[in-house]
Amino acid sequence: MVPLNVKLNTAITVFPNPFVNEFTIQQNGKNSSKTAVLTNLQGKKVMSISCVTNFQKINSESLKAGIYFLKMEDGSVFKLIKQ
């Protein structure tokens, strides 16, 4: 058996998932990320996000339906699905 060390980031929550026209980034903690990047499956940056509050709503109406990855400044990555 090989031990697996996984660091779970419980300080950041992204919801709802899947989403339709907007999603929310909620950060709990003093060391909140200030920026995030949303990429598509091909790794192309589709949106840069500035997190000015710990509860940031992101309008995503311009995005096509599909799978996206949200990479936070702290290195956390979230898989998101747009319907």
Please tell me about this protein's structure:
- The protein has one domain (22-82): Immunoglobulin-like (Sandwich), CATH 2.60.40.
- 0% of the residues lie in helices and 48% in strands.
- It has strands at 12-15, 22-27, 35-40, 45-50, 55-59, 66-72, 77-82.
- The strands form two sheets. Strands 4-3-6-7 form a four-stranded antiparallel beta sheet, with no helix packed on it. Strands 1-2-5 form a three-stranded antiparallel beta sheet, with no helix packed on it.
- The model has no long low-confidence stretch (mean pLDDT 88).
Approximately how much helix is present in the residues? Answer: under 10%
**Estimated share of beta-strand residues:** over 45%
Shape: globular
Could you say what the CATH architecture is? Sandwich
Features:
single chain, 83 residues, mainly beta, Immunoglobulin-like, four-stranded antiparallel beta sheet, 48% strand
Can you summarize this structure?
By secondary structure, the chain is mainly β.
Topology:
Layout: E1 12-15, E2 22-27, E3 35-40, E4 45-50, E5 55-59, E6 66-72, E7 77-82
